[in-house]
Amino acid sequence: MKISIITISYNSEAVIAKTIESVLKQDYKGSVEYRIVDGASTDRTVEIAESYRPRFEAKGWQYVITSEPDKGIYDAMNKGIRGAAGEIVGILNSGDWYEPIALRIVAATYRKRPFDMFYADINLVKPDGSVIVKHSKHDRIVTSRHWNHPTSFVTKKTYEELGVFRCMGIHDDFEFLLRVRKAGKKIVIRNIVLADFATGGTSNQKNLKKSIERIRDRYRGYRVNGYSRLYLIECIAIEAAKAILL
Q1: Domain that holds residue 101
Q2: Helix-strand-coil percent breakdown of the chain, rounded to 5?
Q3: Which helix (H) or strand (E) holds 109?
Q4: Strands 131-134 and 117-125
């Protein structure tokens, strides 16, 4: 089984190495393709990424780096997904990192319980170094509170059937989860930490304007998938929780 990992980057010279190192440290013995989709960085991001090529070649893993302008993070993710050669695709953004067991757990889970989508627990790492474990759960009432994109793995077949990200806003990844659920695809969850997410990025910026934008984008995902207008309450509650906890 080949697993494709996609990392999108733009002027990420300060954090890209940590992300790449976490892929190299995977204890998975199967086939891996690692694709870095860079948005034409003007710093040393691509140079740093290229410096790791010999280590990937030594492991026999496919290593692909592209650098060109894109139309935003989800456009870049879509490029990576469309080019991915693996049966299963994971997305790990610059600055985040996998636990060494991540790919092995994903592959072992798929062999026992074939899935269309998989996700697990994650460490939310705050700027002061403290950690909050965000657990995963398959809620009857769908919510992003118990879903973690950096631990998500989706079969290439599912992307081909349902399409890639719609490039509507910052919560396109959550909208894709809603699409997967609406289509009745099989989702498998493991309550084990498989990735680490550094808080403080676009999805966690603490100001009223950004919070309203995130509420709007999350709510739009619900509505285009036919969910009730009452989900606006959940969207507001998520932003309130972020303001308090992160």
Answers
A1: 2-245
A2: 40, 25, 35
A3: helix 102-112
A4: antiparallel
